[in-house]
Design goal:
The chain is of the alpha/beta class and 977 residues long. It is built from 38 helices and 28 strands. The strands form seven sheets. Strands 8-11-12-5-4-13-14-21-22 form a nine-stranded mixed sheet. A six-stranded parallel sheet has the order 25-24-23-26-27-28, sandwiched between helices. The N terminus is likely disordered.
């Protein structure tokens, strides 16, 4: 461990509770610009009296002391590592002087904040050293742009990465607390929702651990998405309160803020320059969160933006006259941008707020990136080298506005030409696609964008125009229908007339035809066709007209034949900007996040782009960090893995997990494995009782599906399978039930988006089934159904180590990757799933015999939906049986007609079983029977569990980040000297 865990901002108070005769601690603090040196000396006497000596250090000695400190950090032979007594002193100091708590008590919350601030001191030294070194060598850096970061709790992860878990546990014991109890006081950072944010956080951990120069950018949401409460009516949303007591990990950078503009107008100068003026002006203020690597000094930064306006915007006169709302309207309008993650967008106000969020992230981050680039460049800035020093990775389409914003900054602020700015942008920005769902490929109203960001719409129109010219250059104008089809699918602008330059180009280049034709090009929602319209006289077959034409031709054999093009838009359809298309056009790289997903991206979602630019497209299968998702969340299993592999190096080299394969049949390992799983199950059972009140048996199989609630993820398939199981149990005697069914605890978790009515119906259905089944004395411990409220990272860290079967059952071809499937596999959880997302690769790695597969394949889905639309689908009798059972009212008085009705019919929105629950239902039931059969043979099941962990090595985010760094970002590891 080369990191000294106390920074130049560390301060200490009274001596700790206990002493050690040979220990000492040196730290530095700065208060009121006076550097202070604290030396805690321990007496050898039995009384062990400790004295705190404080002396002021002259300012001209400041750098000398700092160099002394960083010399210790650098990993010299006499490197200083604090003991538990020094750490306890640091915690005690922060408890007295730093935290915002009353001084008369040291309760668990105060203990957490003081401990976190003590750890943060450790991080700041490494953090500062990391970026000072990057500045000095001017290294190329990756900037990860994401609307979500699902960090989870930070304390245990930070002390684990710093290799200080033991000393901190001992220090807290001296102060009367357990490390785990203190860590449980920390709320989850409410900066994300699902896999998108969890992936981003895993990437930051791997970037730091692997010493890659990188920086994350996001927004600092005050209330997060929402806190999920479960009531008799199902899910209820209330605001998150994660910042209520403050966030000890963040540092507000009051000196780092950037202006962000909305609305206004664009003024053209006499030289052709553009100036965006007026409108609404806010400031984005930086909050920095250090992200430590594992067993390395490298500590990367997550910079979060919060929004505000200057105090001059507070209307004091209006306030004094009693118009208080008017007085602080501008302040609230700015602040609300960072209130909530994904505000509801049913209203125009909600849509506007979402766009403001996205633009704030892009604008503030790019201004910051440019400022850092200029600082590193020195007096002379060569903008052509920007792509050699900067790469911006857009995590999904939310940061798409990075493209026009970077162009705007380069042209309007830095004075570059359009050609140079556009070229630099195309070499700087890369795009990760996370979805194949059409509704998730963002499209924004051109009218809304024009109103909110007028300069950017000009730029987007210019990009669209140049791209159309590129399409015409590639495909020509010989086949007009083919050209229009390409434009309909590839244009950035949808249902918007062609630019004049394009019309003129086609008019001038298309081959002449007999006699004059007017071609209407009708752009109706991507279905664009060329329509030839004959002159009315020709339609009537006017022979006289034909004779006249023949005569004219004889008189003048060289006749100029002209084509006039008009472009009709459908006034009933909105004019839209397709953000994903803009990402593909403006980025130098497009990657999917699993092998099957990347193939769908190339063959279906962006097939026309792939044919045009095959070199842009690649795959980067997702991964998760083994530090948080095995080493720290499952220490029991980690010890077993280390023992049998013979080294702890697997934590940073996950390929070593494959060594476990040769021990999979070893009875001693199997016994240890079973014991670890049972201990984790006992913890889960206790957690379920605490959160829901339900008592479950750790002797039952723990069957878990935890993820965002969505129809395509098919929690509905799972719960309907449970209903069928329950119904069949009820038809049997007690002895028959015990003989035929393996006891199960079926656990669900996840949030339904607040305005997603069908998803909320599914949540309600699950809780109603649980309320009935769990209180049925005939069933007892044979079946329990539990919905864990407010699923988040901390809940996942509890549930996953104790899970035995996990369900990843989305409709094939609809899940980009998934990351929870990787976490479950790492923790020895056997999976049941479809060939979707990363399931495909997980099954390949863990072995087909160790994965329960069912359901239709991705290539079959379109045909199955067509079959349904034609009325040819015949549902399985068991499926009809379950629907009737639900409608009978056995699960309460709630009317489930709308939910069940979505699975019926052959067409129509919200009907016709679009996600093929009914089609896959019989296959799912039969697969679950195989699960029961395998679980009865615990020796076989344990071997399957071991082989899942052994085969999960591919799914480390370390591997993913190495691939991004090598193939997209072109950056190298930088190890601090």
């Amino acid at each position: 461990m080369s990191a000294l865990p106390f920074s130049t901002t560390c301060r200490h108070s009274n001596p700790p509770l206990h002493s050690h005769p040979k220990s000492s601690f040196i730290g530095f603090g700065q208060r009121n610009n006076i550097w202070q040196l604290f030396i805690i000396k321990k007496s050898n006497s039995n009384r062990s009296i400790r004295k705190l000596c404080v002396r002021n250090v002259a300012s001209n000695k400041k750098e000398e002391l700092k160099e002394s400190l960083t010399g210790q950090v650098a990993g010299t032979s006499n490197e200083f590592i604090p003991d538990s007594t020094a750490i306890a002193s640091s915690i005690k100091y922060h408890a007295e002087f730093t935290t915002s708590f009353s001084p008369d008590k040291f309760d668990p919350s105060k203990a957490f904040f003081a401990t976190a601030e003590s750890v943060r001191d450790s991080l700041i030294i490494n953090w500062n050293a990391t970026y000072e070194y990057y500045e000095r060598i001017n290294v190329k850096q990756a900037y990860y742009m994401s609307m979500e970061y699902l960090q989870g709790r930070a304390l245990l992860n930070a002390v684990g990465n710093l290799q200080l878990s033991g000393p901190y546990a001992e220090a807290l014991r001296k102060l009367g607390y357990g490390l785990e109890d203190v860590a449980n006081q920390e709320p989850d950072a409410a900066l994300g929702n699902g896999g998108l944010g969890r992936l981003a956080s895993c990437f930051l951990d791997s970037l730091a651990t692997l010493n890659y120069p990188a920086w994350g950018y996001g927004l600092r949401y005050k209330y997060g998405l929402f806190k999920q409460l479960m009531t008799k009516d199902g899910q209820e949303e209330v605001a998150e309160n994660w910042l209520e007591m403050g966030n000890p990990w963040e540092i507000q950078r009051n000196d780092v803020s950037y202006p962000v503009r909305f609305y206004g107008e664009v003024i053209s100068g006499p030289d052709g320059s553009k100036q965006w003026t007026g409108g609404e002006n806010i400031s984005a203020v930086a909050y920095d969160v250090p992200i430590p690597g594992y067993k390395t000094r490298t500590t990367v930064n997550l910079r979060l933006w919060s929004t505000k306006v200057s105090t001059e915007e507070f209307d004091l006169q209006a306030f004094n006259t009693g118009d208080h709302a008017k007085a602080y309207a501008a302040m609230k309008n700015a602040e609300k941008i960072c209130y909530v993650l994904y505000p509801g967008d049913e209203s125009i106000e909600g849509k506007t707020l979402r766009l403001k969020q996205q633009y704030t992230l892009c604008s503030a981050s790019l201004q910051d990136i440019i400022a850092r680039f200029e600082k590193r460049s020195g007096r002379t800035v060569n903008w052509e080298t920007l792509p050699d020093k900067v790469v911006v990775q857009m995590n999904d389409t939310h940061p798409t506005l990075c493209i026009p914003e970077l162009i705007r900054i380069l042209i309007d602020v830095k004075g570059l030409s359009w050609e140079k700015a556009w070229d630099i942008t195309k070499r700087t920005v890369a795009y990760t696609n996370h979805t194949v769902l059409p509704e998730a490929l963002e499209k924004w109203s051109l009218t809304l964008l024009q109103d909110l960001l007028p300069r950017h719409v000009e730029i987007i129109r210019k990009v669209d125009e140049e791209f159309i010219h590129e399409i015409i250059s590639e495909y020509g104008t010989g086949d007009l229908n083919m050209l229009q089809e390409k434009l309909g699918k590839m244009r950035i602008l949808e249902n918007i007339e062609l630019p004049d330059s394009v019309v003129e180009l086609i008019n001038n280049t298309i081959p002449a035809v007999d006699p004059v034709e007017e071609i209407d090009v009708d752009d109706n929602d991507n279905d664009i066709k060329a329509i030839n319209k004959k002159d009315e006289d020709e339609e009537e077959g006017d022979e006289a007209g034909e004779e006249e034409q023949e005569e004219d031709d004889r008189e003048d054999p060289v006749v100029e034949k002209k084509i006039e093009m008009t472009f009709k838009v459908d006034p009933k359809l909105p004019m839209m900007v397709r953000m994903a298309n803009l990402c593909v056009v403006g980025g130098f790289s497009v990657n999917g996040v699993a092998e099957i997903h990347s193939e769908i991206v190339k063959e279906e979602v962006f097939n026309e782009f792939y044919e045009l630019w095959p070199e842009k497209f690649q795959n980067k299968t997702n991964g998760v960090t083994p530090r948080r998702w095995i080493r720290f969340c499952n220490p029991d299993l980690s010890k077993i893995i280390t023992k049998w592999i013979g080294t702890e190096d697997w934590v940073t080299d996950l390929e070593k997990l494959a060594i476990l394969r040769k021990f999979a049949d070893n009875e001693d390992l199997q016994l240890e494995w079973i014991g670890s799983k049972r201990r984790n199950k006992i913890k889960v059972a206790s957690f379920i009782k605490e959160k829901t009140g339900y008592v479950v048996s750790p002797n039952a199989m723990f069957d878990v599906q935890v993820k965002r609630i969505h129809e395509y993820k098919r929690q509905l398939l799972n719960i309907m399978g449970i209903v069928y199981r329950y119904k069949k149990m009820k038809e049997l005697s007690t002895e028959e039930r015990k003989q035929l069914y393996v006891p199960r605890v079926c656990v669900f978790g996840g949030k339904a988006f607040a305005t997603y009515v069908q998803a909320k119906r599914i949540v309600k259905f699950i809780t109603d089934v649980g309320a009935t089944v769990n209180n049925d004395p005939e069933i007892g411990d044979l079946l329990k159904v539990v919905f864990v409220p407010d699923y988040n990272v901390s809940v996942a860290e509890m549930l996953i180590p104790g899970s035995e079967l996990s369900q990843h059952i989305s409709t094939a071809g609809m899940e980009a990757s998934g990351t929870s499937n990787m976490k479950f596999a790492m923790n020895g959880c056997v999976q049941i799933g479809t060939l979707d997302g990363a399931n495909v690769e997980i099954r390949e790695e863990v072995g087909e015999d160790n994965f329960f597969l069912f359901g239709a394949r991705a290539q079959e889905i379109a045909g199955l939906r067509k079959e349904r639309a034609e009325g040819k689908f015949v549902p399985d009798p068991r499926f009809e049986e379950v629907k009737s059972y639900v409608r009978s009212g056995v699960f309460g008085t709630y009317n489930y007609n709308d939910l069940i009705g979505s699975l019926e019919g052959n067409e129509g929105y919200g009907r016709a079983d679009y996600f093929l629950v009914g089609k896959d239902f019989p296959s799912y039931l039969e697969c679950q029977e195989e699960v029961d059969k395998a679980y009865r043979d615990q020796k076989k099941w344990t071997k399957m569990s071991i082989l899942n962990t052994a085969g999960s090595y591919k799914f480390s985010s370390d591997r993913t980040i190495h691939e991004y760094a090598r193939d997209i970002w072109r950056i190298e590891p930088v190890v601090l000297p």
